[in-house]
Structure formats: C-alpha cells, structure tokens
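Hi Q.,

Before the meeting this afternoon, I wanted you to have the (2S)-2-hydroxybutanedioic acid prediction in hand. No need to reply - just skim if you have a minute. The sequence and ligand are here:
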Amino acid sequence: MLEFLPTAPPDSILGLSEAYTNDPRANKINLTVGVFKDEQGRTPILNTVKKAEEILLKTETTKSYMPIEGHPGYLKAVLDLVFGTSIDVARVAAAQTPGGTGALRVGADTVAKHFPGTRIWLSNPTWANHGSIFQAAGLETPVYPYLTADKTSLDFAAMMGEIKAQGRRGDLVCLHACCHNPTGIDPTLEQWQEISALLAEKQMIPFVDFAYQGFGDGLEADRLPLHALLEKNSEAIVCNSFSKNFGLYCERVGTVMLVGKEASTTEAALSQLRQSVRCNYSNPPRHGAATVATILNDATLRAEWQAEVDAMRNRISKMRDMFIAGMKGTNATRDFGFLSRQKGMFSYSGLNSMQADWLKKERGIYIVGTGRINVAGMATSTMATLCNAIAECIQAT
Ligand code: LMR
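Predicted structure with the ligand bound:
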C-alpha cells in the first residue's frame, strides 16, 4: 500500500519553520509560525503557567480519564473569559479540544454530520489551515474577498457585497474575532455591527475563530466583535485557543462552543459534541486545561496573567512600530506605514512569494510565502539587519 503513496507538499507554515531549523546560517531569522518570542528569541513559559504547574504537581491525585467534554473548571472559566456577561452561558454547549485546530475540526464535524453539504465562507486570504480543516470535515469552502487590490486595507464593501449576493440561509461564515490571520487587518467595531446585521438578515451563522484574545487591544476589548455578532445572531459557533495568550502551544488547549438560541438546546448540542470528540480522540488531555483553569480561577494568578498578556501585546506593537520606522530609514521606495493599522502577531507585508524566497535564500530570513510576517519574531537587535535585507530584496526583485 505505502509504495503507492505520493509525498505530500510541506506545510506552508510549519514546513518553513522546519526548514529554518535545518538552516546552518548563524544570522538566520524566523518570522514564520505564529509563536511569541522575547527579545532574545525565546518562546518563554509564562510565570503564571509555571506557578500553576507547581500547584498541579502538588495537588493532582490521578491521571484517570476526564469527561469527554473536558475539565469542568476549565470550561466554566473559558465561558466567562470569552462571553463575560454578554449572553446567558447556559445557552452554550462547550467542549475542551486539543488546541484551536481541534476546536475547528470538532465544530465542523458536528455540523457536517447533521447538515451535510453545509458551506462555510472563508475570507480570502485566511489562515492556511482553515480550508483543509473544513474540507476534511466535509464542508464546502467558498471564499469572500477581504483585502483591497494593494493588500493594505480591508475591502469592506467587497466582503459585504459577496456575502449579501451569494450567501444562503444556513451557510456558516468564518470570521476571525480579532488579529486576522494572516493579514492583521480587522473590521472596525462599527463594521462588526454591520456584519452582524447582515448575517442575521440572511440567516447565516457566524463561525468565529478566536485564537488571539488579548493580542489586539486587550482581553476584554478583543471580545467585543464576538459580542456584536451575538447581539443580532441567536446562534453561533465559537472556537478559541490558548496557544498564544497562555503560551501553551504544545499543550494543545482550545474550546469549541456552540451557542444556541435558548438554554433548552444546550444538552442536545453537547451530546453531539461529545460524539464528535469520542470518535476523534476519545477525550481531551488534562494538563494544559488544568493549568489554564488554575490560573483563571484564582484572582491573583489571573491578574498576573493579564499583565503577562498585556506585556506580550505591547512588545509586538513596539516591534511593529520599530519595523515601520526601520523601513523608513532604508532606501526602500515602498512605504510600510500601512502596517500601523494592523494588529496582533501578524503583518501582511505586501512582499510576494518570489521576495519571500529571495529573503530565505539570500539572507536566511524566513517569512511565509504570502508575505505574512510574524511580528512577534522580530527583535531590536536584528531589526536593522531585517530592514536592510527587505530593502535590498525589493530592489533586487
Ligand atoms: C500560525 O498561523 O502560524 C499559527 O496559527 C500556527 C499554525 O499552526 O499554523
């Protein structure tokens, strides 16, 4: 059997990160995969995570299975963090999943099983893995336009026009709650209100990917778009991830949340999530979720964690500003000022795949082929090298 299997192409994000690791050059820079890095290029374990792990080490008494839907203390805390008091959380069926990817897949599987042929609209561009996840679950994935032709701003009219003209009742619409991946370009709160009204009018269902809470404007500010969607739409699917804001990348901690119109639908929805989980991975891993629960359910640790999230966000924002200023100081003819409107880990730089290739080959600087740059990977010490290399690249290509 295996001799008939062709080799699959490398992953467009993680494959590049692997190539970076294998690159022997000393001055190489990795701006590919979305992980936070400090000034020294390390992806640190948060202090609050270390503290929670110490508590767990002392207090954990068993490694027996968890409920299929996951850690109860975790689930309660997540609903509070994501929804606050915007809705009655008794309307939400929630299951802890292996990361945000697991959440997207369990949510998509649950829909596809009961509503075969469902379509989910994806922004063009979107996270490179969205299409594969939803298609693997059996959903159709039409796309709506997202950017202006020069790729520097949101083309809101085009986005809304396409959804209005082509969207059908019961279609899902995948929306990034904040820090759009890969562009870093988000709708304004007023535009979110309009999106919310349009989906309600068309009876389409928001499918919200919420992987970067705290990396845009703050933990509470970043959930406002979701709340705007829920003001007018009685149903939604929300997937969150704690990879970034808790730095728990490899622990795989996420949640799928099915929001119903009334609490009376929650039990059935939860039973279906349980079925999807059971036939995928049976029940979720405990450690990461227990860590998050320990932090979120303790007022002191929670406050300390919020400060850690604020510090990560501020560092990224400082790096983005330094990069814009750094590019101004080079002889590059292109103005990178538009990056100041972008938020979160990623910036769409406007560089094309040929230029990404040039940077990799000539300078050992790795960015995603679409021109996406992980701003969190930048450092003061390498900023001049990076800016000069990009200026040279623009001239050479
Ligand atoms: C990214 O977009 O780089 C992250 O979400 C990590 C991943 O799995 O692709």
